[in-house]
């Protein structure tokens, strides 16, 4: 099973639920947080340009890492979008949940993404290297 990388921020998240954990994690001082995960087909299309998602520009954007489409991010299709706390921030509004591509939600729900639509999950921050995160292409 593959890890998820957030689209909106430069940190990575391990997302787990009642299904197997995607990323091993180290103990953290703060507890895991319960949120929802839904899907949107835009995150399933490998040719989606990063300019059509909020993570594209700014110093912390994925374009600054050298990527131009979703499929160029090494963890595609396991990408999760989360609202920014503020533009170009590395902080995210985690209580609002995540949006992933259909294939990723199918993987979390054993092929039931269309049936369930939204799932409750538990997440926590983990280090980039634990999730097979992206490297700067520059």
From TrEMBL:
Signal peptide extent: 1-18
GO CC aspect terms: extracellular region
Keyword Transmembrane: no
Secreted keyword on record: yes
UniProt KW keywords: Secreted, Signal
Domain of life: Eukaryota
Principal place of residence: secreted
CDD domains: DPBB_CEPL-like (cd22778)
Localization per Swiss-Prot or TrEMBL: Secreted
Family: Belongs to the cerato-platanin family.
The protein's name in its UniProt record: Uncharacterized protein
Organism this protein belongs to: Rhizophlyctis rosea
């Amino acid at each position: 099973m593959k890890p998820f990388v957030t689209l909106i921020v430069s940190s990575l998240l391990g997302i787990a639920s009642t299904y197997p954990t995607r990323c091993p994690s180290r103990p953290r001082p703060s507890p895991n947080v319960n949120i929802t995960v839904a899907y949107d087909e835009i995150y399933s299309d490998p040719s989606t340009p990063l300019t059509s998602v909020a993570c594209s520009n700014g110093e912390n954007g994925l374009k600054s890492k050298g990527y131009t489409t979703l499929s160029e991010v090494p963890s595609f299709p396991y990408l999760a979008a989360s609202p920014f706390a503020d533009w170009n921030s590395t902080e995210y509004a985690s209580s609002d949940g995540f949006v992933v591509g259909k294939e990723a939600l199918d993987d979390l729900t054993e092929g039931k993404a269309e049936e369930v639509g939204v799932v409750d999950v538990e997440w926590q921050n983990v280090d980039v290297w634990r999730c097979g995160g992206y490297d700067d292409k520059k």
